[in-house]
Design goal:
Blueprint (H helix, E strand, L loop, with lengths): L9 E5 L6 H11 L3 E3 L3 E2 L14 E2 L2 H9 L3 E7 L2 E6 H9 L3 E5 L2 H11 L9 E7 L3 H11 L4 H14 L8 E4 L3 H17 L2
Parallel strand pairs: 1-7, 1-8, 2-7, 3-4, 8-9
Antiparallel strand pairs: 3-6, 5-6
Length: 199
């Protein structure tokens, strides 16, 4: 599948931590060569196996704040005591190639992105937002514990944040209640293809 009319757009996948966004986005990128994942920038420390420039662009807080002042970010947010943001030049490079941009970002980032992108130069391709909602908080807790990446304190902090984030589901174009990985992928695949066909 190729991008039509050289007009790329931005597909935002969002939802609470532990709902399966990263796995879903990886499958989408594998399936659609014209859909390129945006590597976001963060000040959090890399986890084991994460590579700078592939998983995230890792910056110190000083470097991040300096780029913020220079206007490098189309959006940024502070989440769990770390900064996360999307650099304008990374987005423009993908759109200029005629491809679509896939963003896996938190609720704050999705809100900021949607409000700012319409007014930004060279980012007038449009935004499609999809919220991945867990069946319940217990589902997130099990997934966070199962992936064994965070301390118990961090898991508790993420669960509290998730309860607030669930209230934002109605702000998105589409909301998918997470089931199996295959079911989630199929639901987003259909949304993406329909939107692409309608451009």
């Amino acid at each position: 599948m190729t991008a039509a009319n050289n007009r790329g757009f931005l597909l935002i996948i969002s939802g609470p931590a532990g709902v399966g966004k990263t796995t879903l986005c990886e499958r989408l990128v594998e399936c659609y060569p014209s859909l390129q994942r945006l590597v976001t920038t963060t000040t959090r420390k890399p986890r084991d196996g994460e590579v700078d420039g592939i998983d995230y662009h890792f910056l110190t807080k000083d470097e991040f704040q300096h780029r913020m002042k220079d206007g490098a970010f189309i959006e940024w947010a502070k989440v769990h005591s770390n900064y996360y943001g999307s650099q304008r030049r990374h987005i423009e490079a993908v759109l200029e190639s005629g491809n679509d941009v896939l963003l896996n970002i938190d609720i704050q980032g999705a809100r900021a992105f949607r409000s700012k992108v319409e007014a930004a130069e060279n980012l007038d391709a449009g935004v499609l937002t999809v919220f991945i909602r867990p069946e319940n908080i217990e589902q997130i807790k099990k997934r966070l514990i199962g992936r064994d990446l965070d301390s118990s304190e961090e898991i508790q902090r993420r669960l509290l944040t998730a309860e607030e984030e669930l209230k934002a589901a109605d702000e998105f174009d589409h909301c998918i209640v997470s089931g199996s990985r295959d079911a989630d992928f199929e639901a987003v695949r259909q949304i993406y293809e329909k939107h692409r066909q309608n451009l």
